[in-house]
Amino acid sequence: xxxxxxxxxxxxxxxxxxxxxxxxxxxxxxxxxxxxxxxxxxxxxxxxxxxxxxxxxxxxxxxxxxxxxxxxxxxxxxxxxxxxxxxxxxxxxxxxxxxxxxxxxxxxxxxxxxxxxxxxxxxxxxxxxxxxxxxxxxxxxxxxxxxxxxxxxxxxxxxxxxxxxxxxxxxxxxxxxxxxxxxxxxxxxxxxx
Length: 193
Prior knowledge:
Blueprint: H1 12-30, H2 37-44, H3 48-55, H4 58-69, H5 83-95, H6 103-111, H7 115-136, H8 142-163, H9 166-169, H10 173-189
Helix pairs in contact: 1-2, 1-4, 1-6, 2-3, 3-4, 4-7, 5-8, 5-10, 7-8
């Protein structure tokens, strides 16, 4: 019989945080369909009833987890002239040999097959990444260019770290950075006038 984690001291903020982090790890590892509230609660050291008291439902818990996972959009702040380099640097660092895929990426990958989870993910990605990125871009089709940049970011994570494409896994990081920075810059600049 599995051992039960010790009971948590009463502290609403710490309990909510423990539930969120337990759920982030669980949804990232198992996907939306592969884990239940009871398992998440057990790992957090609480009951399923308490999880529902804090979040209302599994769907609302997932929504809160997605917000936690996608809250850092600081990559898009700062000097626009350096945005392509920041994006290229982040993706090369996140996908180099020995780097583990991030919880936010695995959350996306493993939960997207569920229609409602995909909707929650899509809305959060638009709010945290696509719209702020679009707001920094000048010229026509800014929304489309922002979405392509995000697809490039996610696709490289998938092929380099999860699938393990030999060409990308063995790529020289400096060369890959240069190629990505050029692609990002082209999307940032948009079509020539």
